[in-house]
């Protein structure tokens, strides 16, 4: 099984950024643990702060992978382009958020991506990624 995790803007700062919200573990550290725990899955990871690069990656893998786990971060609330890219592909997508976006600022309560994904996992910290991964198994 071939699964990719795609992370959006500022998630490259996990471990440093707002540790009270996002924790102190870097995504690279967490991803290594995921790979170690799920050796039977071909698991890859991509991160970009640039909306167009995220769209390009979704289009690139959206017909060849078994699943996409997407944390579009702030683009969740602003990007019709990412929503359209998800709608255009055949690979199923799970939307993931580390924090509970509904307990934060009101602008984070809207997701342009949600109508086009298979499911949403919100608010379980980094464990949200593993829950998404397990949903595909």
Description:
The mean pLDDT is 93. The chain has a single domain, classed as 3-Layer(aba) Sandwich (Rossmann fold), CATH 3.40.50. It is globular. It has a five-stranded parallel β-sheet with strand order 2-1-3-4-5, with helices on both faces. The chain has helices spanning 19-22, 27-37, 51-61, 80-88, 127-135, and strands at residues 2-7, 42-47, 67-71, 93-97, 119-122. It contains five helices and five strands. 32% of the residues lie in helices and 19% in strands. With 137 residues, it is α/β, with parallel strands linked by helices.
Which helices and strands appear, and what pairs or packs with what?
Blueprint: E1 2-7, H1 19-22, H2 27-37, E2 42-47, H3 51-61, E3 67-71, H4 80-88, E4 93-97, E5 119-122, H5 127-135
Helix pairs in contact: 3-4
Order of helices and strands: EHHEHEHEEH
CATH class (first level) name? Alpha Beta
**Main sheet overview:** 5 strands, parallel
Share of residues in helices: 25-40%
Question: How many domain regions?
Answer: 1
User: Which percent band covers the strand fraction?
Assistant: 15-25%
- Span of the ends, CA to CA: 9 Å
**Global Rg:** 14 Å
The CATH architecture can be named as 3-Layer(aba) Sandwich
Strand count = 5
CATH superfamily: Dehydroquinase, class II
- Biggest sheet: strand arrangement: 2-1-3-4-5
Structural class: alpha/beta
By oligomeric state, this entry counts as single chain
CATH topology: Rossmann fold
Summary, kept brief:
With 137 residues, this protein is an alpha/beta fold. The protein contains 5 helices and 5 strands; from the N terminus they run βααβαβαββα.
């Amino acid at each position: 099984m071939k699964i990719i995790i795609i992370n959006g803007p500022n998630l490259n700062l996990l471990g440093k950024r707002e540790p009270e919200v996002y924790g102190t573990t870097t995504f690279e550290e967490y991803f290594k643990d995921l790979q170690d725990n799920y050796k039977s899955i071909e698991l890859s990871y991509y991160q970009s702060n640039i909306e167009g690069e995220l769209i390009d990656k979704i289009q690139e893998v959206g017909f060849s992978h078994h699943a996409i786990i997407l944390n579009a971060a702030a683009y969740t609330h602003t990007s019709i382009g990412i929503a359209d890219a998800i709608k255009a592909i055949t690979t199923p997508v799970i939307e993931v958020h580390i924090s509970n976006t509904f307990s934060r600022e009101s602008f984070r309560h809207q997701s342009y991506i949600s109508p086009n994904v298979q499911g949403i996992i919100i608010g379980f910290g980094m464990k949200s990624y593993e829950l998404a991964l397990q949903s595909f198994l």
